[in-house]
């Protein structure tokens, strides 16, 4: 048994997860691909097997606490980086329809290789900046769930993500311990973009104890067409 499998098995109960042998094999293979490519291209500063299992895989899987990941649920992971949280969620619930959005071309190639190697069906990787992705009519307000992890502060992240959420859908931002400051700062952005703060789920990461906060924002009406603004503007002048 590999370290990835041992850690995931040890922590599964804390997150109310059930992982099959096949899923554990996929996580092992994902880790192997990650560390191999990381030798020539920086995907992550975390490469220790136990730390990847906890800080990347288990952390990503905390998202399942926010919504039932039913078959056919359309999910987009904006600014996915090396595939977190999207790929672990897809391994855990293979029936979801997943889109991964990443702006860096080398990461896009890595993600496509992972999708093929793990045999992840109904999963596509899109090379785009977050600001441009939601301006495309194919993607605007088309997703049941939009997730983002360690991408930007919440006012900026809301502008990137909420335009992709369909009315009635959910945007989940994965945040650390300073979440109250960010939610206060994001009030204006959420109001403009027609999102309503629904809940903040506070939890401790299994086997590590670090605090995680899942900020849940419900889409209550269509976001104004002018958002997101052109590339760079959300960061320079947050709403």
Characterization of this structure:
With 239 residues, the chain is an alpha/beta fold. The protein has one domain: Vaccinia Virus protein VP39 (Rossmann fold, 3-Layer(aba) Sandwich), CATH 3.40.50.150. Helix content is 38%, strand content 22%. The protein contains 10 helices and 7 strands. It has helices at 3-11, 21-38, 49-61, 86-92, 105-118, 130-133, 154-161, 179-185, 187-192, 233-236; strands at residues 74-78, 97-102, 123-127, 143-149, 165-175, 195-204, 211-219. A 7-stranded mixed sheet has the order 3-2-1-4-5-7-6, sandwiched between helices. Helix 5 links the parallel strand 2 (97-102) and strand 3. Helix 1 (3-11) runs parallel beside helix 3 (49-61), helix 2 (21-38) runs antiparallel to helix 5 and helix 3 (49-61) crosses helix 4 (86-92). The longest helix has 18 residues, at 21-38. The protein is globular and about 50 Å long.
Outline, from the CA principal axes? globular
Cα Rg: 17 Å
Number of strands: 7
Instruction: Tell me the span between the first and last alpha carbons.
Output: 49 Å
Biggest sheet features: 7 strands, mixed
Secondary-structure element pattern, one letter each: HHHEHEHEHEHEHHEEH
Work out the strand percent.
Answer: 15-25%
Number of helices: 10
Helicity, as a percent range: 25-40%
Order the strands across the largest sheet as they lie in space: 3-2-1-4-5-7-6
What does the secondary structure layout of this molecule look like, with pairings?
Layout: H1 3-11, H2 21-38, H3 49-61, E1 74-78, H4 86-92, E2 97-102, H5 105-118, E3 123-127, H6 130-133, E4 143-149, H7 154-161, E5 165-175, H8 179-185, H9 187-192, E6 195-204, E7 211-219, H10 233-236
Parallel strand pairs: 1-2, 1-4, 2-3, 4-5
Antiparallel strand pairs: 5-7, 6-7
Helix pairs in contact: 1-3, 2-5, 3-4
